[in-house]
Amino acid sequence: MVLEKMEMFLDNLQPMDLMRSEKMSFVQLIIPAESAHRAISYLGELGLLQFRDLNADKSPFQRTFVNQVKRCGEMSRKLRFFKDQINKAGLLSSAHPVIEPDVELEELEIQLGEHEHELIEMNSNSEKLQQSYNELLEFKMVLQKAVGFLVSSNSHAVAEETELNENVYSNDDYGETTSFLEKELRSVPSNQSGLRFISGIIPRSKVLRFERMLFRATRGNMLFNQAPADEEIMDPVSTEMVEKTVFVVFFSGEQARTKILKICEAFGANCYPVPEDITKQRQITREVLSRLSELEATLDAGIRHRNKALASIGYQLTKWMNMVKREKAVYDTLNMLNFDVTKKCLVGEGWCPSFAKAQIQETLQRATFDSNSQVGIIFHVMDALESPPTYFRTNRFTNAFQEIVDAYGVARYEEANPAVYTVVTFPFLFAVMFGDWGHGICLLMGALILIARESKLSSQKLGSFMEMLFGGRYVLLLMALFSIYCGLIYNEFFSVPFHIFGGSAYKCRDTTCSDAHIAGLMKYRDPYPFGVDPSWRGSRSELPFLNSLKMKMSILLGVAQMNLGIILSYFNARFFGNSLDIRYQFVPQIIFLNCLFGYLSLLIIIKWCSGSQADLYHVMIYMFLSPTDDLGENQLFWGQRPLQILLLLLALIAVPWMLLPKPFILKKLHTERFQGRTYGILGTSEMDLDMEPGSARSHHDDFNFSEVFVHQMIHSIEFVLGAVSNTASYLRLWALSLAHSELSTVFYEKVLLLAWGYDNIIIRLVGLAVFAFATAFILLMMETLSAFLHALRLHWVEFQNKFYHGDGYKFKPFSFASTTEDD
Predict the structure, then answer these.
(1) Are strands 378-382 and 195-203 parallel, antiparallel or unpaired?
(2) Transmembrane ranges (predicted)?
């Protein structure tokens, strides 16, 4: 009677939005070809329909709209090219494009082709002009630097009329600038026996290797002079500024000349002719300078024209990129659809939330009207054999907690969602390990800054770490608030206790015990109203007291959370109508856990309330070793020994209760089904063995009893051993809390107070800086990360393995919004 009333009460409860995933419907769309593109576009704007790929057996090149996808890919390449050019030019593409009339995809394709051709041509001309400018600039610097070398070696020169004939030209396309020099060379007779020289310019990074190679090639029969160039020269390809060095090599002989030329070519050195005659030098220098000024003007005009063209593209670049992305997404989705027999309609299938069916139908009707189609789009719900996707409607606050759960595994369709409880339990367990209200205030300030700048930061491109931090800003907020709460309970502000809620309950026995420990204190009034009494700090009993408190509290929290997980497994089994899991899984599990560790939690509470000195270790150990022995001074209440015997028997009974009945009942139901005696059971979930978690069966007719029994045995052993190991795992709450507290104390006493003990402002400032650094980077960063990961482990392993399967798959609707975010 009581169970029936409880079930009626539970049935009448309103379902929570986040407790179970949205109900999904499997739908089919039959779309006329003329309205297919518009219909898919409208559905992308709506973002509530996930299409199935009906052409999964075909390669991308065998699909219907492969040419349109290729065209979109080519346009994307051109747009990326424009974006790279705009970034190289140092221009900014407009985030808010100028509003202009929409263009069709074909028109945009033509425009992009014209812009690309124009830009490529401008880049080519600019590179040629820059190359010529670089050559003239290098020639000018060679003329300026080489004069000194030639003047100093003038006494070693042979006849003046032979000098220009020996100069070397490595740039055949020099143009009009070298015309005067060539005329001079042709008019002077050759002398093959005198001292010669080669002048040129080379990147500074290659000078040492270049000189060493020349020395080895000529066997030391050369003189190498060098001087750094006054200006850096821009590489026309990489647009980087390169430092160069001017060199002059003096040598003798045609063989040496040939070797030096080859080495210059190999090292990328540019050689230029330098006459020894001062008149000719001045004439060539004037000619070079005039050409440089002309090229500078031409280059500036070309850059201005190119930047103007890039700026006009930049105004519409964002709009064009979004348009091409959308079109490509539409055609990729159309490739997932099939043509019907008449080749006039496209057939698509997919999943949508049940609440969105009306919106989708309205959207399809609008697409039919806007495309002037004479035939409407057919939309109807179908039965599906596969499991539906999982979809939770989250907001900015709950999304981060849902992501924490999904990182472990996406929930099975309509199973209980741990994120509902994670919203509270995750930051609370973090705070139990991180409890310090001073550190909590620091975290709170960081979280509030992120939340206050939410609108600004959400539109910016953040780094990986900042993006993760910003995404979990509300998790950080709750972690900070719970840390402040737990810090007030622990009475720790950067490890320092405060009398916030009144005076201490203890005082000195006499006037001489101001520095005495707890032995010299006496309790003279009611306990401290909230949290730990400040007088415990610094006493001899501080560590044993806090260790005992935090260890017992960790066990209580762990047993409570594991019980919550088992209770959620009951609600899962009840929701799916699986009475076998309730009778032979939930009941023995709740009995086993609470007969052992639930009883331990009860003893802890009774000991706290009664002030007893009983040894709980002794009680729990001898509950197994000698359950009938007298408890003596460890007895906490009347009837404890027979209760312990009863609980021990129930725990022992619960193990075979979990292991044996369920496989044999499943075998019996399977046998009866094929004997035709209990057709009425076929509709129940007990016979739907595919719904059994981890079942070895994929069909009803290939039931394997040994596999089912082994699976149940593994599940039972895992729970029994896990009940012990998981309870012990919650002791990490105590360990990390103690470590955080002790680290804070060390930094406060051994750094800050020690430095403050010196009457020197510099030592005090250094101590304060070290304390601030240790607090920020060790306690606020490393300890936060450590406590976060341990809280994550407690939820994924100790809590969720009691009820959560996590073998579902996410609902990923076709949506332009998600397409833009992903790119």
Answers:
(1) unpaired
(2) 428-451, 472-490, 553-573, 585-606, 643-660, 761-782
Tens-digit pLDDT profile for residues 387-435: 999 999 999 999 999 999 999 999 999 999 999 999 999 999 999 999 8
Give the tokens for residue 543: 């560590």
* Cα–Cα distances in angstroms (integers) from residue 371 to residues 114, 358, 368, 534, in the given order: 30, 20, 5, 76
Residue 810 Rama label (left phi>0; alpha psi -120 to 50; beta): beta
Residue 112 to residue 72: CA distance in whole angstroms: 11
Residues 6+ positions from 25 with CB-CB distance below 8 Å: 351, 352, 353, 354, 357, 381
Cβ atoms of residues 475 and 398 within 8 Å: no
- Return the H-helix or E-strand segment holding 610: helix 599-610
- Integer angstrom CA distances of residue 635 from 249, 381, 593, 607: 103, 66, 22, 10
Query: What span, in angstroms and rounded, lies between the C-alpha atoms of 463 and 441?
Result: 25
Burial class (CB in 10 A: 0-12, 13-18, 19+), 558: buried
Q: 3-class SS at 233? A: strand
Q: Is the pLDDT of residue 540 over 80?
A: no
The pLDDT of residue 696 is: 36
pLDDT digits (tens, 9 = 90+) for 572-590: 999 999 999 999 999 999 9
Is the pLDDT higher at 41 or at 524? 41
Q: What amino acid occupies position 478?
A: L
Whole-angstrom Cα Rg for the chain: 41
Q: Which two tokens stand for residue 497?
A: 């206790």
Residue type, 351: W
How many CA atoms, within 13 angstroms, populate the side-chain half-sphere of residue 145?
A: 23
Confidence of residue 12 (pLDDT cuts 50, 70, 90): low
Q: Can you list the domains of the chain with their CATH numbers?
A: 18-105+307-381 (no CATH), 127-152+193-300 (3.30.70.120), 396-802 (no CATH)
**Which residues have CB under 8 Å from 737's CB, separation 6+?**
432, 433, 434, 435, 490, 550
What pTM did the predictor assign? 0.78
Alpha carbon 558 to chain centroid, angstroms: 30
Q: List phi, psi (to 5°) of 98.
A: -65, 135
